[in-house]
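testing teh design pipeline on a random one, pls ignore if ur not involved
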């Protein structure tokens, strides 16, 4: 291995990482601009109207103390508002129905068979007549 080969490799890797990061930054900026345009369209603003999203400081967001929250109330609120909780409840109901179907498969079954037979007319004599030479 020649002297200086490793630093050249490190430099090439750094340039590759820089190019990748630059591409990611340009993509993120483009996505941000497109998202703003979509938001303007959703709230019926013209595209040329200046519009930017204002982020409030985290300290100004009112939060209740976790100790003051009633767990039953928080859970009930989650059941009413979060779609994942509704999905979980529907999955639970579906599983209960599947258990009932599986249990029903273990019960004995009763089946009936009815057949009506007609008398068979012997026709074999007419089907194969004797041939005489």
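output:
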């Amino acid at each position: 291995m020649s002297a200086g080969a490793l630093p050249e490799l490190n430099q090439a890797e750094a340039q590759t990482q820089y190019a990748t990061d630059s591409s990611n930054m340009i993509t993120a900026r483009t996505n941000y601009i497109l998202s703003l345009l979509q938001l303007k369209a959703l709230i019926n603003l013209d595209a040329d109207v200046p519009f930017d999203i204002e982020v409030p400081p985290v300290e100004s967001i009112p939060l209740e103390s976790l100790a003051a929250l009633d767990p039953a109330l928080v859970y009930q609120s989650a059941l009413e508002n979060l779609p994942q909780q509704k999905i979980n409840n529907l999955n639970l109901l579906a599983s209960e129905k599947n258990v009932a179907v599986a249990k029903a498969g273990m019960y004995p079954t009763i089946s009936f068979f009815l057949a009506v037979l007609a008398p068979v007319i012997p026709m074999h004599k007419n089907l194969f007549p004797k041939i005489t030479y």
